[in-house]
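Hey, I'm writing a tutorial for new members on how sequence and structure tokens pair up, and I'd like a real worked example in the thread rather than a made-up one. If someone can provide the structure for the chain below, I'll link this post from the tutorial.
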Amino acid sequence: MINIARFCIFFLLLTQALSVFAGSAKVYVWRNEQGVLVFSDSPKPGAEEVDIKEPNTVKSSIDTSILDIKPKAIDNNYQVEIVQPENNATVRDNTGSAYVSGRIKPIFKRGLKIQLYLDDKPYKKPQTHSMFVLRNIDRGEHQIKMSLIDDKGKVIATSLPVTFYMHRISVNKAK
């Protein structure tokens, strides 16, 4: 009795699993030397083809036709903004270091680069991110701006200039 119950459960599970492949392959069944049923996708002498019915298909009850799944076109009307330091800020660092951070809108795409200008001169080479570290900047007033450059080397956006004041100890000693 137990073997028949196991066989029924096995056969039920097998037919459910085989329903996935019903449209693409044939299934054959035969008994091996021990009398156990064997299922296979390749025929063997004495094997019988199993009749597999079309599986039930489940359709979603959710209407997805109203969803907007088209890729969004990225607007190429870029804006560049310097976030740090703020305009007219004082940077106090005795090594003359200042951190500069920018923001690109609407999105910083691959292939774009940022050029930082310090006192109207390019500061190092353009880079692929909008964070810079200025080193050994002299005391006093400085102006920075950023330009966004496309993959052809054309400037496509420039930030407003930001003025900051570097405050560091004097190298002159009082006498």
